[in-house]
């Protein structure tokens, strides 16, 4: 197949999980013999330019100050180019208006990936005023949310607000034309259910998960003996539940006869307050803050720990961190958010949204000697996320609409 793939940045670029996931798809399809042309919103680096992929830059035809509005204009300026392809696949949700218009004008087969909530939410998190999950949208309601959110963060409020207003404009445009897109790829059943709730046709959404980064598929190194080493990896903010970590590690050591330690990998807006909470609870001797760690060093960090603990509040669209922990054979204990149950399977325990429930889950698997069982299960569960399993799902998706 000849495939035009619209990348969030460019292959081999550092960036968000979406950037890396898009690169995995591109490389996987190319390895299976498909003819790919990757459209890049940013100028590719030398590593990308030296690859076997054909790259085309989405630059030079628009000077719009809003990034995604500019990308849409750049895509539309290349409408005639897309005649040469069998499939146009955008990994950018907010390119929906331009992809829909191209599909309408030249009758090309189109796919848009729903890798988060940016297709229906200008803030991309579906948190109404940063407090509770949003369950319906309208332009006045969304504008109210945009204006009230983000006031207490370190980001430039006026810049973020303006950007989100432009994003809402794109969302509304895409909403009026979304029927022109042939099929959507959702990362999980939760993402599919969310978009269906917001008016997308369920029979147009296919669930294809993220691909495992096989660098994390290494032998587990801990022996699940004391001290039991807990690990958190991710951004340090409230939606991730990191403010719960000091209370969890403090109470579990008081409640249990076992000794527990905690490693917190990552940085973010709550780091100072979480460090202060550890100081006040006098647990700095059993909690280590590493800050951000290079991605190539993370596999061994997972493998050295006994439990990956995720106390999140927000419904993650997918959560690559779960695959990373599972690939290293590290059992997962997490709150019930998004589609985490279907992702981890028997690789750990999913529990309620409370510190008490998380503590009970940790002590239960440790006291019942279940860590080794979950570790072995994790190694089996990751087979569903390997490149050899996932890439054929994209091929079948493309074939279904050609």
Lay out the secondary structure:
Blueprint: E1 2-6, H1 17-31, E2 35-40, H2 46-49, E3 54-57, H3 67-76, E4 87-90, H4 96-106, E5 109-114, E6 127-128, E7 132-133, H5 139-148, H6 157-177, E8 183-186, H7 189-197, E9 205-207, E10 228-233, H8 245-255, E11 260-265, H9 271-280, E12 287-291, H10 298-304, E13 307-310, H11 320-327, E14 332-335, H12 340-344, E15 348-351, H13 355-367, H14 371-381, H15 387-401
Parallel strand pairs: 1-2, 1-4, 2-3, 4-5, 5-8, 8-9, 10-11, 10-13, 11-12, 13-14, 14-15
Antiparallel strand pairs: 6-7
Helix pairs in contact: 1-15, 3-4, 4-6, 5-6, 8-9, 8-13
Instruction: Tell me the fraction of residues in β-strands, as a range.
Output: 15-25%
Number of strands: 15
| Helix-strand category | alpha/beta
Principal-axis shape equals: globular
Helix content: 25-40%
Give the total of domains: 2
**What is the gyration radius calculated from CA atoms?**
22 Å
What letter string, H or E per element, gives the SSE order? EHEHEHEHEEEHHEHEEHEHEHEHEHEHHH
- Sheet having the most strands: 7 strands, parallel
Q: CATH H level of the largest domain: which superfamily? A: Glycogen Phosphorylase B
CATH architecture of the largest domain: 3-Layer(aba) Sandwich
Q: Indicate the multimeric state.
A: single chain
Distance between the first and last residues' Cα: 10 Å
Low-confidence stretches: none
What is the CATH topology descriptor of the largest domain? Rossmann fold
Number of helices: 15
Strand order of the largest sheet: 3-2-1-4-5-8-9
Rounded mean pLDDT score = 94
InterPro entries: Glyco_trans_1, Glyco_trans_4-like_N, Glycosyltransferase_grp1
Domain Glycosyltransferase subfamily 4-like N-terminal: 17-213
Pfam family, one: Glyco_transf_4
Protein name: Glycosyltransferase family 4 protein
């Amino acid at each position: 197949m000849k495939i035009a793939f619209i990348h969030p940045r460019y292959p081999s670029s550092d960036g968000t999980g979406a950037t890396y996931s898009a690169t995995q798809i591109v490389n996987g399809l190319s390895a299976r013999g498909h003819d790919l042309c990757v459209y890049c919103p940013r100028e590719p680096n030398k590593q990308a330019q030296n690859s076997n992929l054909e790259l085309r830059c989405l630059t030079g035809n628009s000077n719009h100050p809003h990034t995604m509005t500019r990308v849409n204009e750049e895509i539309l300026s290349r409408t005639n180019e897309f005649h040469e392809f069998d499939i146009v696949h955008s990994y950018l949700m907010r390119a929906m208006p331009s992809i829909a218009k191209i599909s309408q004008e030249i009758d090309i087969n189109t796919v848009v990936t729903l890798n988060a909530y940016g297709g229906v939410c200008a803030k991309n998190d579906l948190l109404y005023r940063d407090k509770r999950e949003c369950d319906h949208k309208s332009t006045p309601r969304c504008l109210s949310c945009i204006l009230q959110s983000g006031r207490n963060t370190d980001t430039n409020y006026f810049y973020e607000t303006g950007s989100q207003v432009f994003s809402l404009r794109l969302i509304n445009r895409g909403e009026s034309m979304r029927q022109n897109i042939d099929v959507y790829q959702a990362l999980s059943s939760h993402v599919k259910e969310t978009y269906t709730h917001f008016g997308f046709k369920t029979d147009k959404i296919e669930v294809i998960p993220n691909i495992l980064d096989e660098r994390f598929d290494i032998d587990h190194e801990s022996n699940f003996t004391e001290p039991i080493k807990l690990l958190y990896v991710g951004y340090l903010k409230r939606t991730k539940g990191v403010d719960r970590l000091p209370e969890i590690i403090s109470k579990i050591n008081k409640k249990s006869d076992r000794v527990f330690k905690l490693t917190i990998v990552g940085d973010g807006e709550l780091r100072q307050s979480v460090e202060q909470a550890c100081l006040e609870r006098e647990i700095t001797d059993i909690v280590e803050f590493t800050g951000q760690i290079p991605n190539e060093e993370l596999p061994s960090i997972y493998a050295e720990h006994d439990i990956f603990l995720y106390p999140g509040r927000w419904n993650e669209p997918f959560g690559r961190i779960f695959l990373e922990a599972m690939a290293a054979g590290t059992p997962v204990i997490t709150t019930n958010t998004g589609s985490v149950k279907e992702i981890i399977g028997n690789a750990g325990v999913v529990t309620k949204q409370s510190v008490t429930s998380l503590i009970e889950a940790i002590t239960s698997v440790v006291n019942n000697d279940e860590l080794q069982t979950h570790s072995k299960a994790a190694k089996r569960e990751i087979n569903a996320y390997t490149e050899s399993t996932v890439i054929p799902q994209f091929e079948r998706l493309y074939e279904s609409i050609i």
